[in-house]
Design brief:
Layout lengths: L3 H9 L9 H12 L9 E5 L4 E3 L1 H10 L6 E6 L16 H7 L6 H16 L14 H10 L3 H8 L8 H14 L1 H12 L9 H10 L8 H16 L26
Parallel strand pairs: 1-3
Antiparallel strand pairs: 1-2
Helix pairs in contact: 1-3, 2-3, 4-5, 5-6, 5-8, 7-8, 8-9, 9-10, 10-11
């Protein structure tokens, strides 16, 4: 049991003092505070000189979280082994977590959709690039357990992958389906095959946005804002001349609220 007091003692004997990332410390501390820290067999490695070769950020996170965690501490490692630590490790992704949860297809896209769903539920979509709003793999695992049918939404969205990012579209299609399934199907039908829909139809305008300047990557927040505005207008049976979200300039619009209940 690694207590904050034991973490302090280990760090007091540490003379190596590698550069510390406070952002990374806070990221681990949030996992510990939120009860999402899991014993996974990773070790804290201490050299025969007393230096902490691996685990410095975890030690500081335990101190910051003020909560103990279970871990393995390995002592008396040769000091010159430091250069070999973590040099060949492949980082786990959200898709890897979903594979262990039994998802057999569209794992990367589903992980992307789940990350947007988590940000949406937390109300921090606009600030998703802020390091403190990082979505962890454990969050993706929990979200999939609560929303397994998002896989089907992503699968449907892949039909339009030449037009729009399926992970992004799959996320919004899933959200819209749970608010107004008929409207969600209308959106997907329009994006997949616009024949028969008027050029003033909000979802037709949305499709045109995705196709415009197709060589440039679309900002996901702008795309989500426009999907919300299109859905709201379609729900009210409004015709549209232009589909825009004024997020810059002298007159700035708030991020739109989905109102299709």
């Amino acid at each position: 049991l690694l207590t904050p007091e034991k973490a302090v003692a280990l760090l007091e004997h540490n003379t190596l003092n590698r550069p510390l990332s406070q952002i990374h410390v806070e990221r681990i501390a949030r996992q510990i505070k939120g009860g999402k820290w899991k014993f996974n067999g990773d070790t804290i490695k201490v050299a025969n000189t007393g230096d902490v070769l691996d685990g410095q950020h975890r030690l500081w996170a335990v101190i910051e979280a003020r909560k103990p965690v279970d871990t393995i501490i390995v002592y008396n490692i040769e000091r010159d082994a430091f250069a070999t630590i973590d040099t060949l490790r492949r980082l786990r992704s959200g898709a890897d977590v979903l594979a262990l949860s039994g998802v057999t297809g569209y794992r990367h896209l589903t992980a992307s959709a789940l990350r947007f769903l988590i940000l949406w539920q937390r109300g921090i979509l606009e600030d998703f690039r802020d390091p403190k709003n990082r979505v962890e793999n454990s969050d993706v695992e929990d979200a999939y357990a609560n929303h397994p049918s998002i896989v089907q939404a992503v699968q449907r969205a892949t039909k339009s992958r030449s037009i729009v990012n399926p992970g992004l579209l799959g996320f919004f299609y899933y959200v819209l389906t749970n608010r107004n399934s008929e409207l969600a199907e209308r959106m997907m039908d329009t994006i997949e095959s616009p024949g028969g829909f008027a050029v003033s139809d909000p979802f037709f305008k949305l499709r045109n946005y995705f196709l415009s300047d197709h060589t440039r990557k679309k900002d996901p927040i702008i795309s989500i804002a426009l999907m919300i505005k299109a859905a709201n207008a379609a729900h009210r049976e409004q015709k549209m001349q232009v589909l825009t979200w004024k997020h810059q300039g002298k007159v700035v619009e708030d991020f739109p609220v989905l109102d299709v209940g």
